[in-house]
Amino acid sequence: MKILKEALLPMVLMLAMLASGLYAADKRSGMESVIIDVRTAAEWTAGHLEGAVLIPYERIGEEIAQVAADKKGAVYLYCRSGRRTGIAMETLKKAGYENLINLETVENAAKVLKRAVVK
Questions:
Q1: Of the CATH numbers 6.10.140.1580, 3.90.180.10, 3.40.640.10, 3.40.250.10, which one belongs to the domain with range 2-118?
Q2: If residue 105 lies in a helix (H) or strand (E), which one and from where to where?
């Protein structure tokens, strides 16, 4: 378990730095960005990231254009563990979205994007 933690920590830190940099670049360049919670409505109600939009992962393909028409803008995704964001990312890649960031959990998303979890 200790080896797993030691191996994952650098990867998580790199993801955090990358996502933070991309987020800052989006604001400077004027590119559209959106934060999407791909969990269930019940999970959303229990607590979600401030400024996020709820689109459950199984509906992401049908509803993404309503919140992210720019396929080059950053799309930040999170769920409970990162599994559903991975599925959502594959769907969005197939739809032509280019700048997808898997923040995995709501806690990590809050930390990386420096946003509060609200209910």
A1: 3.40.250.10
A2: strand 99-105
Strands (E), 15-96: 33-37, 48-49, 53-54, 74-79
Domain ranges of the chain: 2-118
pTM of the complete model: 0.75
Q: Which residues of 90-116 are buried (b: 16+ CB within 10 A; e: fewer)?
A: ebbeeeebebbbbbbebebbbebbebe
The pLDDT tens digits for 87-119 are: 999 999 999 999 999 999 999 999 999 999 999
